[in-house]
Design brief:
By secondary structure, this protein is α/β, with parallel strands linked by helices. 46% of the residues lie in helices and 18% in strands. A hairpin with a 4-residue loop joins strand 1 and strand 2. The chain binds ligand C2E and magnesium ion (MG) (3 copies).
Length: 292
C-alpha cells in the first residue's frame, strides 16, 4: 500500500469529521439563537374523552425558522440532544406550558384541563430536574395537578431507583405522569408497577395498523388491559379515523388523541376550539362519540 495514499486518506477523514463537527456546532448555535429570539412555539393537540369532551392537550414543539419555515421536532430535537441544548429547550417548554396553564386557570372553560409536556431522558436525568419543574410551577402560580409529564421508556434505561425517587417527589406535589410511545421501547413489565404513573399512552404505530394487523390489534388490546389492571388511564395517540376510535373504545380505551379530532394547533386556535368558534380540520364522523 502506498504510504502517501494512506496519509491522504487519514487527513481526508479528519477533514470530513472536522467539517461535520463545525456544521453541527453551527446548527446548534442556530437553535440557541432560535431559543433566545422566540422562534420556538408550543402547539397544542387536544386529548379527548370517550364522550368527545376535551380533557386537555399535549404541548408539541415547533421551530418557526426564518428561512426554512416550520421545522418539526423530529428534525431539531436530535440536534438539540447532540449540541447539549436539550435541557435548556426542555426548560423553555416547561416555562411556556406553565404560563399557558396560568392563563387557563382564569377561565372556567379551561380551568379543569390538563396540559401534557414531553420530557426527554437527558432532561429528566439532570440533577436539578425536580427543582426546576417545581420552580416553574411555583413561578406560574398554577395547581401542579394541571401539569402532566410524558416520559418515554428511554428514561427508564437509567437507574430505576433514581427515576422512581424523582417521580415520587413530583407526584407528591400532584404532578401527573404518562408513559409515552408505550410498547416501542425496551422494557420489562415489572418496572411498570414500581412507577407512580397515571397514564399509559399506546404508541401510534399500533393504532395505525390496528384494523389491518391482528398483531397490532392484540398489542393495543394488551396495553389497554394492562393499564386497566394497574389502575392507569389509557390514551391512544395517532387516532385518525372513527373506525380506529370505536375499535379502541370497544377495547376499553378511555382517551384519544389524533388528527380525527385535531392536528396540533397554535394555543389560540386550541382555545377557540373549546369556545366553539372553530371547526376541526378533519370533520368528526357523523356517528355520535359514545362508548360501547
Ligand atoms: P410524541 O410525544 O409521541 O407526539 C406525538 C406525535 O404524533 C406528534 O408529532 C404529533 O404531531 C403526531 N400526531 C398526533 N396525532 C397524529 C395522527 O393522528 N397521525 C399522525 N401521523 N401523527 C400524529 P410531532 O409534533 O412531530 O412530535 C414528534 C415527537 O417529538 C414527539 O412524539 C416527541 O417525542 C418529540 N417532542 C415534541 N415536542 C417535544 C418537547 O417539547 N420536548 C421533548 N422532549 N420532545 C418533544
Ligand atoms: Mg408525547
Ligand atoms: Mg407519543
Ligand atoms: Mg409517538
Amino acid at each position: 500500500i502506498n504510504h502517501g495514499f494512506v496519509v491522504a486518506l487519514v487527513y481526508g477523514a479528519l477533514w470530513i469529521i472536522q467539517a461535520d463537527v463545525a456544521q453541527r456546532n453551527g446548527q446548534g448555535r442556530e437553535l440557541e439563537r432560535a431559543l433566545l429570539q422566540g422562534e420556538l412555539l408550543l402547539y397544542l393537540q387536544p386529548q379527548v374523552g370517550e364522550d368527545g369532551r376535551i380533557l386537555g392537550a399535549e404541548a408539541l414543539l415547533r421551530w418557526q425558522h426564518p428561512q426554512r419555515g416550520m421545522v418539526s421536532p423530529g428534525e431539531f430535537i436530535p440536534l438539540a440532544e447532540r449540541s447539549g441544548l436539550m435541557p435548556a429547550l426542555g426548560d423553555w417548554v416547561l416555562r411556556t406550558a406553565c404560563l399557558r396553564l396560568a392563563a387557563w386557570r382564569l377561565d372556567a372553560r379551561t380551568a379543569g384541563l390538563q396540559l401534557a409536556v414531553n420530557v426527554s431522558a437527558s432532561q429528566f436525568t439532570q440533577p436539578d430536574f425536580v427543582a426546576r419543574v417545581l420552580a416553574r410551577v411555583a413561578e406560574a402560580g398554577i395547581d401542579p395537578s394541571m401539569l402532566k409529564l410524558e416520559l418515554t421508556e428511554s428514561v427508564l434505561a437509567d437507574d430505576l431507583d433514581a427515576v422512581v425517587a424523582k417521580m415520587a417527589v413530583l407526584k407528591a406535589h400532584g404532578i401527573g405522569f404518562s408513559l409515552d410511545d408505550f410498547g416501542t421501547g425496551f422494557s420489562s413489565l415489572s418496572y411498570l408497577r414500581r412507577l407512580p404513573l397515571d397514564q399509559l399512552k399506546i404508541d401510534q404505530s399500533f393504532v395505525r395498523n390496528m384494523l389491518a394487523s391482528p398483531n397490532d390489534a392484540a398489542i393495543a388490546q394488551t396495553v389497554v388491559a394492562l393499564g386497566r389492571t394497574l389502575g392507569l388511564q389509557v390514551i391512544a395517540e395517532g387516532v385518525e379515523t372513527d373506525e380506529q376510535r370505536s375499535f379502541l373504545c370497544e377495547m376499553g380505551c378511555e382517551a384519544f388523541q389524533g388528527y380525527l379530532f385535531s392536528r396540533p394547533v397554535p394555543p389560540a386556535e386550541f382555545e377557540a376550539q373549546l369556545h366553539g368558534a372553530w371547526r376541526p380540520l378533519v370533520p368528526l364522523a357523523s356517528t355520535p362519540l359514545a362508548g360501547p
